Each structure stands twice: as structure tokens, then as C-alpha cells.
Amino acid sequence: LAVSLIDGCTDWSVDYLKYRVLKGEPVRLKCALFYGYIRANYSQAQSVGLSLMWYRSSGLGHGDFEEPISFNGVRMSKEEDAIWFRPADLQDVGLYSCVLRNSSYCMKVSMSLYVAENDTDLCYNSVMRHMEKAELSKSKDITCPDIEDYTEPGKDPHITWFKECRPKQWRASIIQRRDTLSIREVKEDDIGNYTCEVTFGGFVVRRTTELTVTGDSLSLSLTHTHTPTRSYIFPSKFDILWMNIYF
């Protein structure tokens, strides 16, 4: 990260962590200063007289004019070291800066927030999907990522899994454990989009993972109307593509 000194304040520019959320879902945007920049948490900073202020840029570029955020306490609220959006809206897209300061100390960092809508007739946005790969006949775990802020401490989250946005009766070799869907033996039919759903404070949080499958030896059958089926073996690893070819 680029660091600069502006008006006596150490500015760490924009943090590498980018917040991405679907419209209508809650999101907790945490001040990154307490998660890698200083050796203190929010309570410790308060105890030595440091105040935490929040600003929002008028544009998407770092260095654009910033104005203090007026929290209404309803849809957007300041809670300890974070801003909560309950829920996020498209108008919330932008850069958010947290500034920790007193009369002799000042440090600042910015975080980006991206809000998107679901793709038409789907329960996810394709750009915001997580990507995973698995190998045929091997085991694979698909996790429900980044849900720590939307579960009760000390309790296992109640997670519902969907495939292609529809409820599914999983076969016996697919087991759900806490925040993970475990596939003991990957098959061709396991290719696709897996969505986990968590209920939190009257809202729903969803994460979608696209699973692709590779294999050490894949066969492709080409059927001719006048000749027997011919199989071709590819020894190297390819993404699985299924085709019916007619002559």
C-alpha cells in the first residue's frame, strides 16, 4: 500500500480488502486500521483518548473530496470499529475512510464497497461468485465464505445450501458440516453453482461458489449415424465439456 502524510495525518490509501455485497443484504464494513495497521483494538484506542471518525468520498477515486458521514442509526449505523448497512443499497457504492486521531496522532485508511444486484432470475451475481476447482473421483469441500460477522458467537450457523438457486436433495456422499458442504467423491454432475444462505437479523446473507471439475483422463464419444461409437482419450487435464456431435 502507498502511504503518505496529508495535513499531519498518515494516510494508508485504499486497503486491499474489497467489500462486495448484494443489494438488500447486510454488510459490516470494518475499519482496517485495527486489522493490520496498528497494534491496538477499538477499546484500547478509546482508552488512550483516540477518536474514530468516518468519511465518504464524493467519487470512487482515492483523494476525492470527503465529507463526514451522518449516521441515521436505522439503515446505516456506526458500531464500535465498523459501519453496519442493514441492508446495503446501490447508492452505498464508494470509498469509506476511517480516521483515528487525537491532538497529536492521526492515522487513516480507506475501504471500498461494491453493491450489485442479482443476475436476472438468479440468486447471485456472476461477477461476485467465488471459484473452486475439483478433480473427478476426489473429495472436495465447498465452504460458505466470509460469514463470521453474520453468525452468533459460540453457535453453529444455520446454513441452507442450494444448487443453481434451487433446493436439492443431496446424495449420501455429500455431507453438510457447519459451514461446509463436503463431497466425498466428485462426479460430473457436481459441476455448477452452489449457494449458501444464512439468516441474520431478519436479513438473508448469500454466498455463491462456482465449481468446475477436471480429470486426469477424460473420454469424449463422437457418434456417427452410420458408424459405431468412437471414444477418444485425452491424457492430460482438461475442464470437462459435454457435447453431443451428430454428422
Give a nutshell description of this structure:
The chain is mainly beta and 247 residues long. It has 2 domains: 113 residues, Immunoglobulins (Immunoglobulin-like); 90 residues, Immunoglobulins (Immunoglobulin-like, Sandwich). Helix content is 2%, strand content 49%.
CATH fold type of the largest domain = Immunoglobulin-like
What would you call the structural class? mainly beta
Number of helices: 1
Query: Which residues sit in consecutive blocks of at least 5 with pLDDT less than 50?
Result: 218-247
Helix residue percentage? under 10%
Q: Could you describe the largest sheet, including whether it forms a barrel?
A: 6 strands, mixed
CA-atom Rg in angstroms: 24 Å
Regarding CATH, which class of the largest domain?
Mainly Beta
H and E order: EEEHEEEEEEEEEEEEEEEEE
Mean pLDDT: 85
Number of strands: 20
Which strand-content bin applies to the residues? over 45%
CATH architecture of the largest domain: Sandwich
Count of discrete structural domains:
2
What do we call the CATH homologous superfamily of the largest domain? Answer: Immunoglobulins
Q: Roughly how many Å apart are the termini?
A: 58 Å
Sheet with most strands: strand arrangement: 1-2-9-8-4-5
Outline type: elongated
